[in-house]
Task: structure prediction
Amino acid sequence: MTRLITDWIEDIEDTIRDRERDLKNKTGLSYAALAAKVSGCSVSDMERASQQLKVAVVPVTTGLGIIGSFAQSVAAVTKVIGFPSFVTKQTDVNGLHEAYKNSADIVFMADDDRFISINLNKKKMSDNDYATASGYTAALEGAMGSFVGKEILVLGCGNVGREFIRVLKKKGSTFAVHDISGIKLAVARKEDAACVVSPDEIKRYKYIIDATNQGGWLRREMLHPEAWIAAPGIPLSLDQDSYAAFSDRLIHDPLQIGVASMLGLTL
Result:
C-alpha cells in the first residue's frame, strides 16, 4: 500500500459524485455496483445491507501519523454507497472503543503498513491490497465487456501486483507481468505468469493493469493506441501526454475504488 498524501485526496468529499459518474460512464458500475460485483452479491443486497449496518472510520496516529482528509475521504465513499458512516473523534484504541460503543458494524482503519476493514458482527476482514486488485479487475472487466479471449498485462509485481495475479488466476484470465526487477519477475514466474522483460513489449497489450507507483514513466509511444488502463498505482504512471491521449480509457483514483471494494468484501 502506497502511503497517501493529503494533496491527492483532499478533494474527494467534494468530487466523489463526479468521480462516480466518470467510473459509471467508463465501466457501467457505480461504487455500489462495484462493491456488489466484488463481493458476489446483488446491488439490492448491497442496498439492504446499507439499511442494516453502520460504518466507522478510526483515525490512527502510529508511525508517520494521520493523513489529512484520509478518514473523511473513506467515510465519503461508504456514505455515497448508502451506508450511515462516521469518523470517530478519538484515535487508535480509543477510537475503536468509540466505534464499538456507537454501534458500528464495520470499522475501517489504517496505519503506515496496512489498511483494513473489519466486520465486527461476522469477524470478517478485508485488506486494501487485495480489495484494490479485486475492484480494479472488476472495473476493467466492466469496461472490456469480458476477459474471454483478451490478454492483460500487469505492470509491477509488488504487493498489489501480486494480488492482481491472485485475482486474475482465480478468474482464469490470460495475463502477463512486467517489472524492472528480475527478482519480482521470478516471483511472477512461480505463479505461472508469462513475463515481459522489455518495456518495448508493453505496446503489444491493449489491456493494462498498472500497479506501479513511480509516476510519469509511461509515455504515449509505449502504449497500444487503443489501450485500456486500470491504474491503482499512485502517483499515476502516465506522463502528461499519455494522460491526455488515454484519459477516456483510464480507470484511476487515489482511494475510492479500493474503499468500495473493501466494503463489499467485508459484508
